[in-house]
Protein backbone atom coordinates (compact mmCIF):
# COMPACT_ATOMS: atom_id res chain seq x y z
CA UNK A 1 0.00 0.00 0.00
CA UNK A 2 2.79 2.37 0.91
CA UNK A 3 4.62 1.52 -2.34
CA UNK A 4 1.54 2.36 -4.39
CA UNK A 5 1.11 5.61 -2.51
CA UNK A 6 4.76 6.45 -3.22
CA UNK A 7 4.25 5.86 -6.92
CA UNK A 8 1.17 8.09 -6.95
CA UNK A 9 3.03 10.83 -5.12
CA UNK A 10 5.88 10.56 -7.62
CA UNK A 11 3.44 10.81 -10.54
CA UNK A 12 1.74 13.81 -8.97
CA UNK A 13 5.12 15.47 -8.51
CA UNK A 14 6.09 14.67 -12.09
CA UNK A 15 2.85 16.22 -13.34
CA UNK A 16 3.54 19.36 -11.32
CA UNK A 17 7.06 19.56 -12.71
CA UNK A 18 5.76 19.00 -16.25
CA UNK A 19 3.08 21.67 -15.83
CA UNK A 20 5.64 24.11 -14.45
CA UNK A 21 7.95 23.38 -17.37
CA UNK A 22 5.12 23.89 -19.89
CA UNK A 23 4.18 27.13 -18.18
CA UNK A 24 7.76 28.34 -18.39
CA UNK A 25 7.97 27.34 -22.06
CA UNK A 26 4.73 29.17 -22.78
CA UNK A 27 6.10 32.28 -21.13
CA UNK A 28 9.33 32.02 -23.10
CA UNK A 29 7.34 31.42 -26.29
CA UNK A 30 5.25 34.54 -25.72
CA UNK A 31 8.42 36.50 -24.93
CA UNK A 32 10.18 35.14 -28.03
CA UNK A 33 7.22 36.15 -30.19
CA UNK A 34 7.16 39.66 -28.76
CA UNK A 35 10.91 40.18 -29.12
CA UNK A 36 10.94 38.73 -32.63
CA UNK A 37 8.24 41.17 -33.71
CA UNK A 38 10.14 44.11 -32.19
CA UNK A 39 13.74 43.31 -32.96
CA UNK A 40 14.03 40.27 -35.25
CA UNK A 41 16.42 37.40 -34.67
CA UNK A 42 19.11 39.70 -33.28
CA UNK A 43 17.23 39.94 -29.96
CA UNK A 44 18.97 36.69 -29.00
CA UNK A 45 22.36 38.44 -29.06
CA UNK A 46 21.45 42.10 -28.56
CA UNK A 47 19.05 44.11 -26.44
CA UNK A 48 17.61 45.69 -29.60
CA UNK A 49 17.05 48.94 -27.77
CA UNK A 50 17.71 52.36 -29.22
CA UNK A 51 20.93 54.02 -28.25
CA UNK A 52 20.70 56.11 -25.13
CA UNK A 53 19.50 59.59 -25.89
CA UNK A 54 18.30 58.82 -29.42
CA UNK A 55 15.23 60.75 -30.57
CA UNK A 56 12.02 58.82 -31.34
CA UNK A 57 10.90 58.91 -34.97
CA UNK A 58 7.56 60.50 -34.01
CA UNK A 59 9.28 63.42 -32.26
CA UNK A 60 11.69 64.02 -35.15
CA UNK A 61 8.87 63.82 -37.69
CA UNK A 62 6.79 66.37 -35.78
CA UNK A 63 9.80 68.73 -35.62
CA UNK A 64 10.48 68.37 -39.36
CA UNK A 65 6.88 69.24 -40.18
CA UNK A 66 6.69 72.19 -37.80
CA UNK A 67 10.14 73.76 -38.12
CA UNK A 68 10.91 73.01 -41.78
CA UNK A 69 7.42 72.84 -43.34
CA UNK A 70 7.91 69.29 -44.62
CA UNK A 71 4.55 67.61 -45.21
CA UNK A 72 3.45 63.99 -44.91
CA UNK A 73 3.73 63.35 -48.65
CA UNK A 74 7.36 64.52 -48.69
CA UNK A 75 8.32 62.44 -45.64
CA UNK A 76 6.30 59.34 -46.58
CA UNK A 77 9.00 57.61 -48.72
CA UNK A 78 11.55 58.13 -45.95
CA UNK A 79 9.31 56.89 -43.14
CA UNK A 80 8.03 53.94 -45.21
CA UNK A 81 11.49 52.36 -45.09
CA UNK A 82 11.04 51.58 -41.42
CA UNK A 83 14.45 53.09 -40.68
CA UNK A 84 13.95 54.50 -37.19
CA UNK A 85 17.07 56.65 -37.49
CA UNK A 86 16.03 58.37 -40.76
CA UNK A 87 13.84 61.19 -39.40
CA UNK A 88 16.25 62.03 -36.54
CA UNK A 89 19.20 62.04 -39.00
CA UNK A 90 17.37 64.38 -41.37
CA UNK A 91 16.42 66.71 -38.53
CA UNK A 92 20.01 66.77 -37.31
CA UNK A 93 21.35 67.67 -40.78
CA UNK A 94 18.79 70.46 -41.24
CA UNK A 95 19.54 71.86 -37.79
CA UNK A 96 23.26 72.02 -38.61
CA UNK A 97 22.54 73.75 -41.92
CA UNK A 98 20.17 76.23 -40.26
CA UNK A 99 22.83 77.23 -37.73
CA UNK A 100 25.44 77.72 -40.47
CA UNK A 101 23.13 80.10 -42.34
CA UNK A 102 22.06 81.94 -39.19
CA UNK A 103 25.69 82.46 -38.22
CA UNK A 104 25.95 84.58 -41.38
CA UNK A 105 22.66 86.37 -40.67
CA UNK A 106 20.96 84.36 -43.42
CA UNK A 107 17.83 82.22 -43.53
CA UNK A 108 18.05 78.59 -44.55
CA UNK A 109 16.52 78.62 -48.09
CA UNK A 110 13.64 76.29 -48.89
CA UNK A 111 15.45 74.97 -51.94
CA UNK A 112 18.34 73.86 -49.71
CA UNK A 113 15.88 71.97 -47.50
CA UNK A 114 14.18 70.29 -50.47
CA UNK A 115 17.58 69.50 -51.99
CA UNK A 116 18.69 67.67 -48.85
CA UNK A 117 15.46 65.65 -48.74
CA UNK A 118 15.66 64.80 -52.44
CA UNK A 119 19.28 63.67 -52.09
CA UNK A 120 18.27 60.80 -49.79
CA UNK A 121 19.35 57.33 -50.92
CA UNK A 122 16.55 54.96 -49.88
CA UNK A 123 16.56 51.19 -49.49
CA UNK A 124 13.12 49.61 -49.23
CA UNK A 125 12.11 47.01 -46.57
CA UNK A 126 12.59 43.37 -47.60
CA UNK A 127 10.96 40.13 -46.48
CA UNK A 128 13.26 37.78 -44.58
CA UNK A 129 13.40 34.18 -43.48
CA UNK A 130 12.98 33.56 -39.77
CA UNK A 131 15.39 31.16 -38.07
CA UNK A 132 12.79 29.21 -36.12
CA UNK A 133 15.48 26.76 -34.94
CA UNK A 134 17.07 29.46 -32.81
CA UNK A 135 13.70 30.57 -31.51
CA UNK A 136 12.72 27.02 -30.57
CA UNK A 137 16.09 26.46 -28.87
CA UNK A 138 15.32 29.54 -26.79
CA UNK A 139 11.79 28.33 -26.01
CA UNK A 140 12.77 24.72 -25.32
CA UNK A 141 10.28 23.14 -27.72
CA UNK A 142 8.66 23.68 -31.12
CA UNK A 143 6.87 27.00 -31.44
CA UNK A 144 3.11 26.94 -31.77
CA UNK A 145 2.04 26.96 -35.45
CA UNK A 146 -0.21 30.01 -34.92
CA UNK A 147 2.74 32.04 -33.64
CA UNK A 148 4.82 30.86 -36.59
CA UNK A 149 2.19 31.90 -39.12
CA UNK A 150 1.81 35.32 -37.50
CA UNK A 151 5.56 35.92 -37.55
CA UNK A 152 5.86 34.82 -41.17
CA UNK A 153 3.11 37.22 -42.24
CA UNK A 154 4.88 40.28 -40.84
CA UNK A 155 8.51 39.27 -41.14
CA UNK A 156 10.34 42.15 -42.86
CA UNK A 157 13.68 43.82 -42.37
CA UNK A 158 13.44 47.62 -42.39
CA UNK A 159 15.04 49.57 -45.19
CA UNK A 160 17.55 52.31 -44.62
CA UNK A 161 18.01 55.96 -45.58
CA UNK A 162 21.33 57.65 -46.32
CA UNK A 163 21.62 61.44 -46.51
CA UNK A 164 24.79 62.77 -48.19
CA UNK A 165 26.33 65.50 -46.08
CA UNK A 166 25.34 68.77 -47.84
CA UNK A 167 27.97 71.33 -48.69
CA UNK A 168 27.51 74.76 -47.19
CA UNK A 169 28.32 77.60 -49.55
CA UNK A 170 29.20 80.78 -47.70
CA UNK A 171 28.22 84.24 -48.85
CA UNK A 172 30.28 84.95 -51.98
CA UNK A 173 32.48 87.91 -52.59
CA UNK A 174 31.60 90.56 -55.19
CA UNK A 175 33.52 88.77 -57.93
CA UNK A 176 31.44 85.64 -57.34
CA UNK A 177 28.31 87.78 -57.31
CA UNK A 178 29.05 89.27 -60.74
CA UNK A 179 29.37 85.80 -62.22
CA UNK A 180 26.23 84.68 -60.46
CA UNK A 181 24.19 87.61 -61.74
CA UNK A 182 24.84 86.52 -65.29
CA UNK A 183 23.90 82.93 -64.48
CA UNK A 184 20.73 84.07 -62.72
CA UNK A 185 19.60 85.98 -65.80
CA UNK A 186 20.37 83.13 -68.21
CA UNK A 187 16.69 82.16 -68.34
CA UNK A 188 15.78 85.72 -69.45
CA UNK A 189 18.48 85.55 -72.10
CA UNK A 190 17.14 82.25 -73.45
CA UNK A 191 13.57 83.53 -73.44
CA UNK A 192 14.60 86.72 -75.27
CA UNK A 193 16.15 84.70 -78.09
CA UNK A 194 13.00 82.59 -78.32
CA UNK A 195 10.79 85.70 -78.27
CA UNK A 196 12.70 87.12 -81.24
CA UNK A 197 11.57 84.13 -83.28
CA UNK A 198 7.94 84.65 -82.20
CA UNK A 199 8.07 88.37 -83.03
CA UNK A 200 9.59 87.79 -86.46
CA UNK A 201 6.83 85.28 -87.20
CA UNK A 202 4.11 87.73 -86.16
CA UNK A 203 5.68 90.60 -88.12
CA UNK A 204 5.80 88.40 -91.22
CA UNK A 205 2.10 87.64 -90.75
CA UNK A 206 1.25 91.33 -90.46
CA UNK A 207 3.31 92.14 -93.58
CA UNK A 208 1.44 89.45 -95.52
CA UNK A 209 -1.86 90.91 -94.35
CA UNK A 210 -0.71 94.35 -95.51
CA UNK A 211 0.03 93.04 -99.01
CA UNK A 212 -3.51 91.69 -99.28
CA UNK A 213 -5.18 94.89 -98.10
CA UNK A 214 -4.99 97.83 -95.77
CA UNK A 215 -4.05 97.10 -92.15
CA UNK A 216 -6.36 98.20 -89.34
CA UNK A 217 -5.17 100.90 -86.90
CA UNK A 218 -4.72 98.20 -84.24
CA UNK A 219 -2.54 96.11 -86.56
CA UNK A 220 -0.44 99.13 -87.46
CA UNK A 221 0.07 99.95 -83.76
CA UNK A 222 0.91 96.31 -83.01
CA UNK A 223 3.48 96.30 -85.83
CA UNK A 224 5.12 99.38 -84.32
CA UNK A 225 5.12 97.81 -80.82
CA UNK A 226 6.64 94.57 -82.11
CA UNK A 227 9.32 96.45 -84.06
CA UNK A 228 10.34 98.44 -80.97
CA UNK A 229 10.28 95.27 -78.86
CA UNK A 230 12.52 93.48 -81.35
CA UNK A 231 15.07 96.29 -81.12
CA UNK A 232 15.05 96.05 -77.29
CA UNK A 233 15.53 92.29 -77.43
CA UNK A 234 18.46 92.50 -79.84
CA UNK A 235 20.12 95.19 -77.74
CA UNK A 236 19.65 93.27 -74.47
CA UNK A 237 21.02 90.06 -76.00
CA UNK A 238 24.12 91.89 -77.27
CA UNK A 239 24.73 93.48 -73.87
CA UNK A 240 24.43 90.08 -72.18
CA UNK A 241 26.91 88.56 -74.62
CA UNK A 242 29.28 91.38 -73.73
CA UNK A 243 28.88 90.73 -69.98
CA UNK A 244 26.18 93.26 -68.98
CA UNK A 245 23.01 91.64 -67.63
CA UNK A 246 20.87 94.65 -66.63
CA UNK A 247 19.09 95.14 -70.01
CA UNK A 248 18.10 91.46 -70.10
CA UNK A 249 16.76 91.73 -66.56
CA UNK A 250 14.51 94.59 -67.62
CA UNK A 251 12.78 92.58 -70.36
CA UNK A 252 10.45 90.58 -68.14
CA UNK A 253 10.04 92.65 -64.99
CA UNK A 254 8.49 90.81 -62.06
CA UNK A 255 9.36 87.44 -63.60
CA UNK A 256 13.00 88.48 -63.27
CA UNK A 257 12.50 89.42 -59.62
CA UNK A 258 11.21 85.92 -58.87
CA UNK A 259 14.22 84.44 -60.63
CA UNK A 260 16.56 86.64 -58.62
CA UNK A 261 14.85 85.76 -55.34
CA UNK A 262 15.24 82.09 -56.14
CA UNK A 263 18.89 82.30 -57.15
CA UNK A 264 19.97 84.97 -54.68
CA UNK A 265 18.36 83.36 -51.64
CA UNK A 266 21.70 83.31 -49.86
CA UNK A 267 22.60 86.93 -50.73
CA UNK A 268 21.65 90.10 -48.96
CA UNK A 269 19.87 92.61 -51.19
CA UNK A 270 22.47 95.27 -50.50
CA UNK A 271 25.09 93.08 -52.23
CA UNK A 272 23.15 92.99 -55.50
CA UNK A 273 23.70 95.75 -58.04
CA UNK A 274 20.90 98.32 -57.44
CA UNK A 275 20.61 98.89 -61.20
CA UNK A 276 19.88 95.20 -61.64
CA UNK A 277 17.21 95.25 -58.93
CA UNK A 278 15.60 98.36 -60.46
CA UNK A 279 15.66 96.78 -63.91
CA UNK A 280 13.61 93.84 -62.64
CA UNK A 281 10.84 96.24 -61.63
CA UNK A 282 10.16 97.26 -65.26
CA UNK A 283 7.30 95.21 -66.64
CA UNK A 284 6.23 94.74 -70.25
CA UNK A 285 4.13 97.77 -71.25
CA UNK A 286 1.00 97.92 -73.40
CA UNK A 287 -0.85 101.13 -74.41
CA UNK A 288 -4.22 101.67 -72.78
CA UNK A 289 -5.85 102.55 -76.12
CA UNK A 290 -5.48 99.00 -77.43
CA UNK A 291 -5.06 97.04 -74.22
CA UNK A 292 -7.32 94.06 -74.94
CA UNK A 293 -6.35 93.67 -78.61
CA UNK A 294 -2.63 93.78 -77.83
CA UNK A 295 -2.75 91.38 -74.90
CA UNK A 296 -4.85 88.85 -76.81
CA UNK A 297 -2.57 89.08 -79.85
CA UNK A 298 0.65 88.82 -77.81
CA UNK A 299 -0.66 85.78 -75.95
CA UNK A 300 -1.58 84.08 -79.23
CA UNK A 301 1.88 84.90 -80.58
CA UNK A 302 3.42 83.46 -77.35
CA UNK A 303 5.22 86.72 -76.68
CA UNK A 304 3.37 86.92 -73.37
CA UNK A 305 3.38 83.89 -71.10
CA UNK A 306 1.58 82.72 -67.99
CA UNK A 307 2.71 84.71 -64.94
CA UNK A 308 3.95 87.74 -66.89
CA UNK A 309 2.98 91.08 -65.38
CA UNK A 310 1.87 93.72 -67.91
CA UNK A 311 1.70 97.45 -67.15
CA UNK A 312 -1.12 99.29 -68.92
CA UNK A 313 0.08 102.82 -69.68
CA UNK A 314 -1.61 106.01 -70.78
CA UNK A 315 -0.49 108.15 -73.73
CA UNK A 316 1.90 110.10 -71.52
CA UNK A 317 3.48 106.86 -70.20
CA UNK A 318 1.77 106.80 -66.79
CA UNK A 319 0.96 103.33 -65.43
CA UNK A 320 -2.79 103.16 -64.86
CA UNK A 321 -3.32 99.43 -64.40
CA UNK A 322 -1.44 96.16 -64.03
CA UNK A 323 -2.45 92.73 -65.36
CA UNK A 324 -0.99 89.30 -64.63
CA UNK A 325 -1.32 86.79 -67.45
CA UNK A 326 -3.47 83.91 -66.22
CA UNK A 327 -3.01 80.23 -67.20
Annotation keywords:
single chain; 327 residues; mainly alpha; 2 domains; three-stranded mixed beta sheet; 14 helices; 7 strands
Describe the structure.
By secondary structure, this protein is mostly helical. The chain folds into 2 domains: 151 residues, no CATH class; 151 residues, no CATH class. It is 59% helix and 8% strand. The protein is built from 14 helices and 7 strands. The strands form 3 sheets. Strands 5-6-7 form a 3-stranded mixed β-sheet, covered by helices on one side. A hairpin with a 5-residue loop joins β6 and β7. α9 packs antiparallel against α10. The longest helix is centred in the N-terminal third of the chain and has 38 residues. The radius of gyration is 36 Å and the shape is elongated. About 3% of the residues have low confidence.
Distance between the termini: 105 Å
How many strands appear in the DSSP assignment?
A: 7
Calculate Rg over CA atoms: 36 Å
> Which term fits the overall shape?
elongated
Tell me the strand percentage band: 5-15%
Note poorly predicted spans. 45-53
Count of runs of 4 or more consecutive helical residues: 14
The biggest sheet, with number of strands, parallel, antiparallel or mixed sense and barrel status, is: 3 strands, mixed
Widest beta sheet: strand line-up: 5-6-7
Q: Please tell me the overall pLDDT.
A: 78
Q: What sequence of helices (H) and strands (E) makes up the elements?
A: HHHHHEEHHEEHHHHHHEHEE
Fraction in helix: 55-70%
Based on secondary structure, the structural category is: mainly alpha
Number of domains: 2
Amino acid sequence: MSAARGILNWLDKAEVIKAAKEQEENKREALAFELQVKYGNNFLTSSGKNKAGSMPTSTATAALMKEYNLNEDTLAPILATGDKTAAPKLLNILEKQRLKYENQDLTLPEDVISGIVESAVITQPISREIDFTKLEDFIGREMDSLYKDMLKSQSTDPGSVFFPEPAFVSTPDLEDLNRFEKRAMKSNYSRAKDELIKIDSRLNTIRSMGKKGNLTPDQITERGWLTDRKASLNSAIKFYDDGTVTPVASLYGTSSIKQLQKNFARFKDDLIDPELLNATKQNIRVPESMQQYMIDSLIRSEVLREGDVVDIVSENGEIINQITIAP
